[in-house]
Amino acid sequence: MKKVLLIIAMLSPLFNYAQDKKPIPKSFDLVVGTYTTGTSKGIMVYRFYTQSGKLAYLSQIDGVTNPSYLTISKNNKFIYAVNEVTKGEVSAFSFDAKTGKIDFINKQSSLGADPCYIAVDKAQKNVFVANYSSGQVAVLPVNKDGSLGNGIETVRNEEGKGPNKERQEGPHAHMSILSPDEKYLFYNDLGTDRINIYRYRAGKASPLTDPTFVSVTPGEGPRHLEYSLDKKHVYLATEMGSNVFVFDYDNGKFKQKQVITLLPDGFTGKTAAAAIHLSPDGRFLYVSNRLETNEIICYAVNQETGGLTFVSRQPTYGKNPRDFAIDPWGNYLVVANQGSDSMFVFKIDQNTGKLTQTGIKIDIGNPVCLKFTAAE
Question: How many CA atoms lie within 13 A of 365 on its CB side?
Answer without folding.
Answer: 13
